[in-house]
């Protein structure tokens, strides 16, 4: 699949995932709070600044930044999925956040002028992009001198079994292809060396990287499985394509693999690790 085909396929997937993300948004916001708060604290938005969020999804990090700006500044929340932008618009209204611009925008072709923003947020976005190097170069272009980008990507597969276990089993059973090295995907930027290479290659300063642990708490395996089917992007689409028998077999394999993480009362505590980074434009 070439870059253009991947972009279209990714756009279609995330349009379909928007309803699931919107439904899980409050749960996700709480579970991922450590990573989101660290991102925004590192960016340190100041009243009067212009902050851009890329790949905002159904809306979490940008709204936290809005609370810091306190109505004194400009927040532009963007996603390349029209459905995601509508979901984040609804979330903003429900939260009572005003003064936010919601725009459909491709992070690889940012529709803003050079040196027009003070800070950029991107939570779990760069790793999924067809050309993260281009997206980071675009990020640098729109940042003013001294501007910052604060981002989050997922760490190593072994530290994120909530995603790597279903993915591994789908590949083993022939329902998905193993990703090529460097191909877009949830673990495409799990190696800190690749993060540094991409960020500095885009002309930004050497990123400060920090691992941020989070904990997914599921009341049951059924809840975990529904979460995976509702929001897990390419994994969810692969599961959707299976017939009833195949789906049950994959589910059983995933449950067995995650059994060590099950609690006595049937709940699951599944840890995760994000790699958060902060880099500046000279």
Computed CA radius of gyration, to the nearest angstrom? 18 Å
Structural class: alpha/beta
In sequence order, what are the helices and strands, one letter per element? HHEHEHEEHEHHEHHHE
Got a strand count? 7
pLDDT < 50 stretches: none
CATH class: Alpha Beta
Report the sheet-strand fraction: 15-25%
Ends: how far apart?
36 Å
| Arrangement of strands in the largest sheet | 3-2-1-4-5-7-6
Task: Give a verbal description of the structure.
Strand 1, helix 3 and strand 2 form a beta-alpha-beta unit. This protein has a seven-stranded mixed β-sheet. The longest helix is centred in the first third of the chain and has 29 residues, at 3-31. 46% of the residues lie in helices and 21% in strands. The chain has a single domain (3-280), classed as Vaccinia Virus protein VP39 (Rossmann fold). It contains ten helices and seven strands. The protein is α/β, with parallel strands linked by helices. The chain is globular.
Summary keywords:
282 residues, alpha/beta, Rossmann fold, 7-stranded mixed sheet, 7 strands, 46% helix, globular
């Amino acid at each position: 699949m070439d870059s253009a085909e991947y972009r279209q396929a990714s756009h279609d997937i995330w349009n379909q995932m928007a309803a699931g993300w919107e439904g899980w948004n409050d749960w996700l916001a709480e579970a991922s709070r450590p990573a989101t708060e660290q991102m925004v604290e590192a960016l340190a938005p100041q009243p009067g600044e212009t902050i851009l969020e890329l790949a905002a999804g159904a809306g979490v990090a940008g709204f936290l930044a809005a609370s810091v700006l306190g109505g004194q500044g400009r927040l532009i929340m963007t996603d390349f999925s029209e459905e995601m932008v509508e979901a984040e618009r609804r979330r903003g209204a429900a939260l009572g956040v005003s003064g936010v611009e919601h725009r459909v925008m491709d992070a690889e072709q940012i529709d803003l002028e050079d040196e027009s923003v003070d800070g950029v947020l991107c939570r779990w976005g760069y790793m999924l992009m067809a050309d993260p190097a281009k997206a980071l170069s675009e990020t640098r272009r729109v940042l003013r001198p001294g501007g910052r980008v604060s981002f989050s990507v997922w760490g190593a597969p072994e530290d994120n079994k909530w995603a790597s276990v279903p993915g591994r089993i789908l590949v083993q059973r022939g329902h998905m292809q193993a990703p090529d090295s460097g191909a877009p995907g949830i673990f495409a930027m799990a190696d800190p060396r690749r993060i540094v290479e991409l960020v500095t290659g885009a002309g930004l300063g050497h990123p400060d990287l920090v691992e941020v642990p989070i904990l997914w708490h599921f009341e049951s395996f059924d809840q975990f499985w529904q979460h995976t089917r509702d929001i897990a992007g390419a994994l969810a689409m692969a599961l959707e394509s299976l017939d009833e028998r195949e789906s049950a077999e994959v589910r059983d394999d995933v449950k067995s693999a995650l059994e060590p993480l099950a609690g006595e009362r049937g709940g699951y505590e599944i840890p995760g690790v994000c790699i958060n980074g902060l880099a500046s434009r000279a």
